[in-house]
Amino acid sequence: MSARAVILTPDAWTAFLGRLYERDDRLDVRQEGQTYAADELVDAWVLSGHAEALRSAEVDGDLWGTLQDLEESAGSEEEAWARIVAFYLDRGCVLVQVRGLDEPEDWILSETLARRLGLPVD
Predict the structure, then answer these.
(1) Phi, psi at residue 23, to the nearest 5°?
(2) What pLDDT, on a 0 to 100 scale, did the predictor assign at position 4?
(3) Residue spans per domain, the chain
(4) pTM value?
């Protein structure tokens, strides 16, 4: 399994989301000097539509449904998430973790998306 993880603080997570916009179902980084419509703002709900999998206090990531889609099983939520993470990291995805919160905030993004959004994946 690859150990590709990006660790963010809660403030860095908020800043990261604030730098993004979604237009025509494409998520990207805002460019200085460009104008963006209010409906192009990105929050956790919008980002969830682009994530491979997630475990979030804000957004229901359907942990068990994701595990079932992978044709895996687990005895606990922690084990289920570990299996999901292993599956996606083995396929080149990137784990984004927000540390310093009361509940886990973990997101799995494709490497292509993570790079486009400016996350340090190397």
Answers:
(1) -140, 130
(2) 86
(3) 5-117
(4) 0.92
Under 8 Å between Cβ of 17 and 43: yes
DSSP state letter for 93 = -
DSSP for 24-58? TTEEEE--TT----GGGB--HHHHHTT-SEEE-SS
Query: pLDDT tens-digit profile of 30-77?
Result: 999 999 999 999 999 999 999 999 999 999 989 999 999 999 999 999
Q: How long, in residues, is the chain?
A: 122
Residue 6: half-sphere exposure toward Cβ, Cα within 13 Å: 22
User: Environment class of residue 34 by beta-carbon count within 10 Å: exposed (0-12), middle (13-18) or buried (19+)?
Assistant: exposed
Identify any residues that bridge with 97 across adjacent strands, giving them in sequence order: 7, 106
Of 46, 55, 6, nearest to 26 by C-alpha is 46
For residue 3, name the pLDDT band (cuts at 50, 70, 90): low
